[in-house]
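Structure request: d-aminoacid aminotransferase-like plp-dependent enzymes superfamily protein, Salix koriyanagi.
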Amino acid sequence: MTSAGFLYSKGIVFYPADTPPISTFLESNPGAYTTTRTHNNSASLLFWDRHLQRLSNSVKILLTSNPQFLFKSLNSTINPLLTPPPPSNPMLESTIKSLVNESINKVLPVALRETRNEGEELAVTALVTGNTEKLGEVKRNIFEALDVHVHVGSHVPHVFGVKGNGARVAVVGPGRNIAEAKYSDWVRLRKSLEKLRPPFVTELLLSNDGDRILEGCVTNFFVVCRKDNRNEKYLGGNENTLPYEVQTAPIGDGVLPGVIRQLVIEACLSKGIPFREVAPSWSEHEFWQEAFITSSLRIMQRVEKIQVPSPWQSLELKALKEISWEEKQFEEDPGMITALIQKEIMEKAGL
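Returned structure:
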């Protein structure tokens, strides 16, 4: 849960009365963005260095392939007088990180002075936009035409493992374009999927064929699947003896390289948990033992139920009330593998 709060934009700190909700702000402004939260009673930003790196990567991707997602009212071709950055540009990365950190330092101390309820943290979103007006002034390096905006709102962290606190997810639409970059236009584009949201569903999943599941609209999606389709119980001792593997779609299939997604991979490697980058297949859902979604605000959340339309084509042909759904229900408590991964990530975060 995140509420409206403070905004730093164009050198000015805006207070709650003048700050729109984060979704409204992102819909209204093009750019690459990243969202994280504070932790340990707002002592620090969660995995901030990783977020800055991912944000820099998103800016480079958009500048190179789709500058119209960075610059408002800009055609798909960058001003020919400007030089798009090469794939590896230390100056661009350092400039973006410096601009973002400077902006964070302008607004975060203001937000921290405000009284928050017990258990609340702060959700922090940094948006890098292209300033179209500066394009005519920039002579060579396009990063000189970039602006940074920072939105800060109160956030109540998700509590892992509480009964009834699991996610209910449904597969409702195709994967997104330029999925390797996190950009604000997706906030507007994904609204068209809302008309397909079944009752009580808390996250919408994406698939291009109704079988291979890519990711969620705002999360990455994982399953714990029995290997070789063996119907066995969890084994004790060394995790390498487990007949299970964690699966999630590879970046190349069209998913966001989420910060927590990478931490899940690292946790699996650290704990010896079998892991494979492959899109979880609904046709094999009978072998799924656990499922969870990840994001920087919720960290990890177990999935308690998943729904998939049957047939897939009915999404385009029928109204929501006419669609039939296949369902899979998971156990009420987090599974052993999910809990083990979550514990490893929380320890790395110092939570």
